[in-house]
Design goal:
Blueprint (H helix, E strand, L loop, with lengths): L12 H5 L8 E5 L4 H11 L3 E6 L19 H4 L6 E4 L5 H12 L3 E4 L5 H4 L4 H5 L6 E5 L15 H8 L19 H24 L3 E5 L1
Parallel strand pairs: 1-2, 1-4, 2-3, 4-5, 5-6
Amino acid sequence: MRWSVSPPLEQTDAMVANPPPLAGIRVLEFSRIIAGPLCAQQLADLGADVVKIEHPVNGDDMRARSPKGDRRGAGFLAFNRSKRSICIDLSTPAGQELARELAAESDVVIENFRPGVMDRLGLGHEQLRADHPELIYVSISAYGATGPFSSRPGLDPVLQAESGMMSLNGPIDGGPTRHPLSLIDIMTAGHATSAVCAALLGRHQHGRGDVIDLC
């Protein structure tokens, strides 16, 4: 099954003569909602070829938020333009093997599962980089891969509350209020994009990939 995603930008004569900075870079994305998808989208905007792996039944969770029921609402497209998308059932051995084959042909892997999930699927950074040390592997999670809270799930509203951000919003004499934008997810995506660009530069200089644990 292949989901419909906004196609990559058509190559103009000017783009061929002056290719974007990440032209030729391949990104494999195992992420959903905002932080991971926005990072991958920003890399696509810079010229990378991004392939997004989606759930075979529901796809990215943001697809369900389309008011027209077409699975391509503004909320989804805002973070997933300029990508290609395929569905793989990662719970099956065949799906896991296909994902490993795609990763072997990629420069960057981005995932935002809870720590340990990709390892159980045979797609963790140690497993994928064993035969592909040039790979740049990006893990985005609420609390990072280590520490007492690492196994906890987390979404932007939860982190807004825990960080105290909600106490800065709303009426002066009222209670904490969520910021209407998912600011933490958006800032996380920006940090992830800059980290990937730095890792790509580092790989160009010393030939090795990297592991980026971002929360």
